[in-house]
Amino acid sequence: MIQNAAGRFIPEFINGEPVVPFQGVGKYRPDGRKHAPVIATYADYPLDGNKQVATLKEALVKAGLKNGMTISTHHHFRNGDLIANMIFDIAKGLGIKNLRWFPSASFPCHAHLLQYLEDGTISHIEGSMNGPLGRFCSEGKMKKTAVLRSHGGRYQAVQDGEVKIDIAVIGAACADPFGNANGLNGPSASGLLGFALADSQYADKVIVVTDNMVTFPCIPWQIQGNYVDYTVEVDKVGVPEKIVSGTTQITKSPDRLLIAEMTAQFCEATGIIKDGFSFQAGAGGTSLSIGIFFGEIMRKKGIKARFARGGSNKYLVKMLEEGLVEYVLDGQTFDLEGVRSMRDNPNHVWTSPFTSYNYHGKGNFAGMVDVVILGATEVDLNFNANVVTHSDGYLLHGIGGWQNCLFSKTVILPLPLFRDRIPVIVDEVTTVCGPGELIDVIVTERGIAINPLRKDLIEKAKGSGLPIRTIQELKEEAESICGKPEKPQFTDKVIAAIKWVDGTVIDVVRQVKQ
Amino acid sequence: MIQNAAGRFIPEFINGEPVVPFQGVGKYRPDGRKHAPVIATYADYPLDGNKQVATLKEALVKAGLKNGMTISTHHHFRNGDLIANMIFDIAKGLGIKNLRWFPSASFPCHAHLLQYLEDGTISHIEGSMNGPLGRFCSEGKMKKTAVLRSHGGRYQAVQDGEVKIDIAVIGAACADPFGNANGLNGPSASGLLGFALADSQYADKVIVVTDNMVTFPCIPWQIQGNYVDYTVEVDKVGVPEKIVSGTTQITKSPDRLLIAEMTAQFCEATGIIKDGFSFQAGAGGTSLSIGIFFGEIMRKKGIKARFARGGSNKYLVKMLEEGLVEYVLDGQTFDLEGVRSMRDNPNHVWTSPFTSYNYHGKGNFAGMVDVVILGATEVDLNFNANVVTHSDGYLLHGIGGWQNCLFSKTVILPLPLFRDRIPVIVDEVTTVCGPGELIDVIVTERGIAINPLRKDLIEKAKGSGLPIRTIQELKEEAESICGKPEKPQFTDKVIAAIKWVDGTVIDVVRQVKQ
Q1: Do residues B77 and B339 touch, judged by C-beta distance below 8 A?
Q2: Distance from C-alpha of A291 to C-alpha of A305, rounded to nearest angstrom
Q3: Any chain A CB within 8 A of the CB of B368?
Q4: pLDDT in tens, B189-201
């Protein structure tokens, strides 16, 4: 084991590959070249552009599916995804073994794949472990070590050739037989297909699967058919009501509402909310409420935001349509209003992990955002935060765009001081996902802690009347109420690696001792 | 010298690089990998995304401009371009020598650069030679050999690493300091920036220059800032009235009108014009007229086209707005109406040489077009055609997308039987740009010749009442009127290579004997 710059002990090899330890923010320098795909020739593709084959099985066989390959899928259909399960059912039927599954995220609907992790069809997952798959992994049952990456880190890993995808299967709400595809039109509309961009550009073989095949051209093309080998039409790629919710809801919890209001007040008091500013909030209940408070402040001040980053939802769409926000730059879409707006409003623009988050590009959008509102399962006294493991030690969440967003100008984590009588502020987080130097403010219902590195914010918050406290004070208050919980117990077995945005390993997760 | 599959004698080396001779359509198989750019890191770029520097000179110096580099520019501003001249004025001022200029096309406005070809600032040009630069080249005055490629071939060459660009300078009508850019908004609006796509993706350093710098985000982004190193604002990137014409005009020549009408009649008689068909015509007077005749036929039949390919113009925009055409997929824009439509109409979509023409992709759009209308300077008895040299042997034109379009389902060349009393149909073309097997129909004012390979079209044209003749008959008729002109005389010196779409050399051009 070696100790990395986050102070964590990590193995020198994971799945037989040498590990580059986290070296500090901006410290690791890549020295290679991007992954170079094989040069294709039009002579190998149908001249009339029709790449459609009859079944997904035929496409996978034509793409050369065999033991040990890396198969990628994407989470545009979220918990309504049907594609990943189909692929591995086919692989099982063909007797294929030892596949690496490389999803952009996994959801409870993928519990179907536990049987294939058990029987060796799938050797391991590199991607988020939401719910049942995470539990399986935390119990040490996965044959190899999981690797978790942020959305930007996934793009980086593919671009840099760290993960070579043999076959990418891209599910799309709409496609043409050439392979142009979007997430906007059709029963399985999800908004956009940005998580599949890297795969389309760099995978050896690319298959587009849709339940809404249209005559060329599929407009707009979010995925370009010029990267696609085969196209397939199936009955159903997803379960619509599980892809996007009909409605997103603001929180009704008085504590959460208080946290949301304090977050907005903090941003007003410190001058973050100003004409032409930019913000990113999520689609959780608290985040939605913060957006609404932001809107109220902007109306009161008569100002507007230059842009907001999604995932979008009906509240953000309303702000766009009201003119409070000039542009919405979206990475994903959480409800039907968001899909409609992205389809119809040219100021509602789809982005990708390349534009927004790729750390190994010539910059990305994250650093241009004035303030980002994020969650966490735990924060420690050094402002390090955890988003993947729970207080019981189980790996139950993916990283998403969370690490990438830490590069925005101000990072605020609005958090309840405790959840189920477990304090959220701890001495040391179970898993370091983000280094404290990038996390600026913790807003809880009992006070706001500002990272001492942000002297500017500490200065600006003076005289605001807001309850500014130290993070130690907040931790002590929580412990005085809840007591200090026992730490979860782990074996020595590393079950997952947590990558930083630059491909280095910032921490590992160990098997939970049951 | 070696003889290639087009029967042409070509040197084994050009500019010191080994030549791959043309091997027949679809015969050459690339066996390498795409060019792999160096992996960048956000740590080297401003965190706030502001990459703006004060002057183009500063940007070029920061990008490491030095002797022998390859500098690319693009022809979005056509004959109104100011950028290329600025770059080489700066290079001259810095005493830099021996640059390879790699424009997507050059125009008469670039005659300013003749002095730098003379004094060694520029060693040679790889790109089209329109007008004065072509004449200079044809007279054997350029220090090295020119290399001409189609739009798709240029993308292919950059993608495949055949041409490594050190510094790409992308002029844009609109950009933000991060480098997102489009050709839609601002005084130098040109419609789109697709010709710079390969350069942005593969060049070592990328500079975006605009006269209309806007606050992030520049929407839409046709060029993605994540590929860009530096941005610059200058007073003027182009001369608007020379970028797009205020109006495009249909031909008034009775002969040209007759050719246009016969072309449309041929397409009707042979069933090419049918519901859901697709077509591509240019913006020359005859092509515009053909589009208008197509529209009349479609109205009469009550049918519409699924898509048309541009370069677009007010007539095509009218068809789109009338609903005769569902989508316009545009590679460039020839007038202000085209720019407006592309900006405002979501069914008017910008494309790039990657989507439309790259032969080393997984297919491209060209083969999906039912009928394409192209020009030529000469055609021979085997239907081989020439678009780069004139009857006097001078290299005066670029290839443009011409070679790429030959892959469409039916290729028609509407041509006058003679120009200035020089017959257009010859025994053997001066320069082979496109192999006869891909050219289907020649329409002249005195008859229509169908390539004997297209038995289906010959059959369908029977009984149409159209004057179907053999190409020999047309040639003999022209010669009976004009006589047989003397062939131009050349020295042995090769002054330019003509690449086929796959990077092989299909022909060379020799110095004109003066």
Answers
A1: no
A2: 12
A3: yes
A4: 999 999 999 999 9
